[in-house]
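Researcher: Here's a chain I'd like modeled. Treat it as a single chain, no partners, no ligands.
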Amino acid sequence: MRRALPLAAKAVAPLSAAALLLTACTGQGADGSGAGAAGGSTKDKLVLGMTADITGWDPSAQPAYQAWGFEAAYDTLVSCNKDWSLAPAAAKSWEISADKKSFTAHLRSGMKFSDGTPVTAQTVKETFAPLAKTASDRYGGIKFDIPDAHTVTITWPDPQPLMNSRVCNPKLASAKYLASKDKNTAPVGSGPYTYDAKASTAGSVYVLKKNPDFYDAKKYPYKTLELRVLSSATAALSALKTGQIDGTVVTADTYNEAKQSANVNVMAIESGVTAMMLTDHEGKKIPALKDVRVRKAMNMVFDRDLIAKNLYKGLASPTYQFFNKKGAAYVKDAGDAYPYNVAQAKKLMKQAGYEKGFTLTLPTMEGQAWTVLLPYVTQQLAELNITVKSKTLTGADAISKLLSGDYPAPLWTVGASADSIQDISIGVIPAGYWNVSHQSDATVEKNWKTILTGSDSESRTAQQAIGKYVLDNAWYVPLVNPQVFYAYSDSVKISKSTDPNDAHPLLRDFQ
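Model: Modeled as a single isolated chain. Structure tokens:
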């Protein structure tokens, strides 16, 4: 899971297991017969395996991970390219104000939602307006101006250095659907596909049919999209090898098998930083975390080279900072600020008065690749008498629980954007959704204000100051930059992944 997260609950969707469907789904044969799955020449059907279930269709809580169903059912105001630049979507053109506070969109005419209602400037407002409360860190205080049915201006109270991600992430949905009490049974969007509820079984298989009236239908060549929920990455790879699906995410454990499989291609993407985020700087829930010596000690009990080599089988690189090396917040001369040294870590704990340790609960969700670390993390923190308990989150409220602050030191794979502002906004400032304790800090807030209002040069200086500050104060326990992998059949063409979150190919990448 990467940095673009659900707009309401702000995290990946909860994951659940489902039985592997055994009905074969082979491509069209040379004689022209067959069901046409697995990317046949007529492109009848694209079948993707998912190790993450769809737990509901609420567009404000869509995940960034394995979210092909949301990409299929819903359109967006504009689209974000790989580099976070904007491309037309529901809006054919747009303007951003010089003060970076306002975004004016000019909508296409003739668009309709799957319930037949038109896509208008008013529906854009009705999509964005609830986010002022449910995602107040990014949309708080927004206002709207609608001069006509196809023009809408969204204005923020403060400059938005991340304006592009603010406007390309929300999914547009019909007013009637947004007002309904049940937004989870079926989606009502204006995307390239419409949901076929009769052909779908929640928790097992989701079927969507191509929308021939979609303005950019050529980018989505398959007549049918079928998403199959599989029990694990191992089951998903087995389904791919036997022709039951056309593509699936794979893990470091299944990478070599996928690479050695006939008629299977594997795409590797470096994605995010796996880190423990020590957000309780004031020690309100875990008093020990208020002491920087404890936070430094927690950093020093991990052998990052060993993690990358053994636990990730060389398919990850050790990392010593939360920020991407290409970003302005990365401290280039810091090296390994907290080198592996268990004895020194124990001394720091004793100096801080916490040699007896404490208990730390780490939230988990099924299907997360980082959980390979959990036994090692438990073992190493035990060296400091820190007892690790894991809490598996499930159900529709799993996302909210994950980021509720009940677990003030989550271990997850996040961020690592080349644009440090992205990661500062989600993990450092008090409003950031991965700064789950949301505790204020004068140094961070001073520099964030400069990022919002200063020149480009002043912004870079402020980003560097934040990077050094959080490193010196050990706000994070960064461990590795993992690679993520996507395996797909020879019958499917994926020239590249255009996902700005670097999680996996998007639906629009399958040809």
